[in-house]
Amino acid sequence: AKPAEAKPAEAKPAEAKPAEAKKVEPQEPGKETLEQPKDRVGTRTGCRRYWWEFKDSNKEFWGMGHAEVKILSLGCLIGTAMLFYFLPVHPVLLLVNKMEIAIFTSFIILYTFAINRYIPFILWPISDLLNDLFAIIFLGGAVAYGYISRKSLPQPYLIGLILMGVAAFFALIDMSIQTKHFKGKRARRMRVLVPPPPREPEQENEAGQAPPAPAAGAAPDPGMKK
């Protein structure tokens, strides 16, 4: 008897390995997926918005020269107040000097801490421009009045008047810088001047569809006015 021949083993099809599931990293609840623009606020809220407004306001305030000019004007006015403290001076000069010190200080605080960005109903470029204009008028008038009203001019008194005149000159420089800045202002800085969106010409009915047109040759509606 012949020995049984061994049959070749049939190749088994390779089993498909199950696809490995990709691991999805859980996203943090406070993390935003969209990148925020650098040139505008975007959708920032809370502390992130204030931090962006703070940096942008200081960049604009110090980069264009407003801060330096206002600080120099404030320094001159403070020096005048210190010189007038030891001399008999007319109350009008003291009033103008202290008033301008308070106004310049308030503008420096507003722009440094970005408080003006949260008060959009005031046009701050125009307010700053008018402040510089009135500062020039008041300080120039105070210098002229202080020079004419006294016959003798002691040295501290004269130096105080000169410092007031220098402060008025710095206000003039700030006014010229402010006009250049005002020309380049974007519409977002003056949201009050943006016109409202146009109204829709025709309003749809309550169902959301326009009323059907009457068929040709149909009898007119008796309730319709002629």
Automatic annotation (TrEMBL):
The chain crosses the membrane at residues 69-87, 99-118, 130-148, 154-173. Residues 1-40, 193-226 are annotated as: Disordered. Keywords: Membrane, Transmembrane, Transmembrane helix. It comes from the Eukaryota. The keyword Protease does not apply. Residues 206-220 have a biased composition (Low complexity). This is CKLF like MARVEL transmembrane domain containing 2.
